[in-house]
C-alpha cells in the first residue's frame, strides 16, 4: 500500500510543468506551491543530519553493547540501516529536486530518482517490519521452537534476501515504462501482503500476550519465566510502536491520493505533496527516538547520558 501511494504521487507529480507560467495568473497559482516547497526544503534540511546521526548511533549501540544484542534489536538495527539511507539518499534528493524547481532548472532526473528511492525504501522498511513481527510471533507463540528457527544464519539470510529484492526492484525501475509499471504493481502487492501479515500477527500476539498475563496472575510461575514473559511483552510493544509509526507516516499519502482521486483537484496535490513526502521521510527520524524511549540502555548510548554519581551517606 505504501508503495502504491508513492507510485500515485509519482504519476501526479510527473505532470508538473518544466518551467513556470509566464502569465500573471499562472505565477499567482505557483505561489502556494513554491511556498510549500520552501517550507519542505527547510524541514528536510534540518531533519536530514539528525536522521543519519541518530540511526547510525542506534546501529552502533546494538553492535557495541552486548545487552542490546537481542534478535529483535538486531532486526531493528537493520531497519535503522534503511532509515540511514533515507537520510543519506532520499532526503538530499528531495531537497535538491525542489531547489532546482525553484531555480527554474530541469528536474526530471531528480524527480525520477527521488521517487525511485522512496519506493525502494518504503518496500524495504515494510519487509523489515515483517521480519520484526515474525520474530516476535515465533518468540511468543512458538517459544519452544524459537532457538531452532531464529538463528543467526537465518537472520542473515532473511535480511540479505530483503536487500536483494529491493535492489532488483530498484534496477527494474530504470527500465522501460511497461516493465516499471509491472514492478510497481508487484511491489504494491508485496507491501500489501506484508501489511496483512503484520496485522494478523499482531492480533494473534495480542491474544497470546493476554493469555500469558492471565497465566501469571493465576499460576505461581518461576521468577525466571515471569521475567522472560515481561521481557518478550516489552519487545512486542516496541515493535507495535514502530509499525504504527511507519503506517501512520503513510496515512496522509493515502488520504491525499483518495481525496484527489475522488474530487479531481490536482492543484491540491501540488501543494500538499511536498509535506506528505516530508512526513513519510520524517518517520526515519522518529524510529530511533522510539527505540531510545523504549530501551534505557539504547537511550544512554545514543544521547551519551552520564551515570548519576552516588553520594556517600552521612553518618
TrEMBL record:
Main location: membrane
Record keywords: Cell membrane, Membrane, Transmembrane, Transmembrane helix
Highest taxon, organism lineage: Eukaryota
PROSITE patterns membership: G_PROTEIN_RECEP_F1_2
GO cellular component: plasma membrane
Xref: InterPro entries: GPCR_Rhodpsn, GPCR_Rhodpsn_7TM
Pfam family, one: 7tm_1
Localization per record: Cell membrane
Membrane topology classification: Multi-pass membrane protein
G-protein coupled receptors family 1 profile domain segment(s): 54-291
One example GO MF annotation: G protein-coupled receptor activity
Residue ranges crossing the lipid bilayer per the database entry: 37-62, 74-97, 117-138, 159-176, 182-205, 240-263, 269-293
PANTHER family: G-PROTEIN COUPLED RECEPTOR
Record protein name field: G-protein coupled receptors family 1 profile domain-containing protein
